[in-house]
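Duplicate of #3305? Posting structure anyway:
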């Protein structure tokens, strides 16, 4: 059922930290921008390297821990089944399965169709079950 980890998400301290983080992952690590959305403190970018994906958000608390991970996402063909298994095991569901067509800045006018849910894991970690959809 679970096919792998889809992406890791980082939440930056502020806009300046967001720009610095993007520069680090692009220039130093060699990741390429897949897509981005939002502006200012609401900006986010997905980067890719050899099939591995990282999502970076500009928003974040000034007191956030250095290097803290916002959530990680498992790639699945069935978000609903994965969510049900977690719920049945007694773990909290933060966000029920939902379809979203995320409007993208790049490429202009495009959307990123997805289905996802969020739950809390055994040590308090935020977990997303994620699948891409057809438009």
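Output from current build:
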């Amino acid at each position: 059922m679970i096919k792998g980890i889809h992406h890791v998400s980082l939440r930056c301290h502020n806009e300046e930290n967001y720009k610095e983080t993007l520069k680090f992952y692009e220039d130093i690590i060699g990741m390429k921008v897949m897509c981005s959305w939002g502006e200012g403190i609401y900006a986010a970018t997905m980067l890719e390297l050899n099939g591995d994906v990282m999502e970076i958000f500009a928003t974040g608390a000034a007191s956030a821990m250095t290097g803290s991970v916002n959530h990680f996402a498992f790639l699945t063909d069935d978000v609903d089944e994965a969510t049900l298994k977690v719920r049945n095991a007694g773990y909290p569901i933060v966000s029920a399965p939902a379809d979203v067509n995320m409007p993208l800045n790049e490429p202009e006018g495009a959307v990123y169709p997805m289905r996802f849910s969020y739950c809390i894991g055994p040590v308090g970690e935020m977990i997303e079950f994620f699948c891409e959809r057809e438009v």
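Confirmed duplicate; merging threads. Residues 23 and 29 are 9 Å apart (CA to CA). The two ends are 23 Å apart (CA to CA).
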